[in-house]
Amino acid sequence: MKKTTTTAEPPPEWLTIGTLAKRVGFAVSALRYYEEVGLIPPALRRESGHRVYPESVQDVLILIRHCRDLGFSIDETRELVALSTSAERDCVEARAIAQGHLTAVRAKMAELRRLERSLSRYVRACSEGCAGGPAPDCSILTDLRQGVSASTETAGCCS
């Protein structure tokens, strides 16, 4: 865990954690967490104990917010933040991270489409065969109890 440092008194243009959080649309606890996991540099502390950050941290937090909105992991976000400040590194690295994430998102979407088709078959089988019948005889519950995949049509509970 990174420690914050107390300083005599940071320059007045430095931002308190509350001001910074408000500007970028994060909760204060999120900023503390991002500091703890090393996504933003450790804060300095005023003599009053308040955390303060240079204004440049605001840009990093906006990048972090957009990375998280897109579902990048903390590790991917950390790497993208590092790339954003390193002129020696090539943007191909950022593309590789984004491509990897895009591949994972597409795989999740395919899985969700399979899930939707299965659930749709369960609902259709119930609607056509047993809706309104006794719940224990419902084709959905029967198939789930038996481990029957919704990929095959069921006869229904009330037919």
Please characterize this protein's 3D structure.
One of its GO terms (molecular function) is DNA-binding transcription factor activity. This is MerR family transcriptional regulator. The chain has a domain of 85 residues: Multidrug-efflux Transporter Regulator, Chain: A, Domain 2. The protein has six helices and four strands. It has 159 residues and is mainly α. Helices cover 55% and strands 6% of the residues.
Shape: elongated
The sequence of SSEs as H and E is EEHHEEHHHH
Tally of contiguous helical segments? 6
Percent strand equals 5-15%
Global mean pLDDT: 87
- Supply Rg: 26 Å
Largest sheet: 4 strands, mixed
The counted number of beta strands is 4
State the CATH topology of the domain at 5-89. Answer: Multidrug-efflux Transporter Regulator, Chain: A, Domain 2
Low-confidence stretches: 153-159
Give the structure's gist in a few sentences.
The protein is mainly alpha-helical and 159 residues long. The protein has six helices and four strands; from the N terminus they run ββααββαααα. InterPro entries: DNA-bd_dom_put_sf, MerR-type_HTH_dom, MerR_fam, Tscrpt_reg_MerR_DNA-bd.
Task: Give me the secondary-structure topology.
Layout: E1 5-6, E2 15-16, H1 17-24, H2 28-36, E3 44-45, E4 51-53, H3 57-69, H4 74-84, H5 92-129, H6 139-146
Parallel strand pairs: 1-3
Antiparallel strand pairs: 2-4, 3-4
Helix pairs in contact: 1-2, 3-4
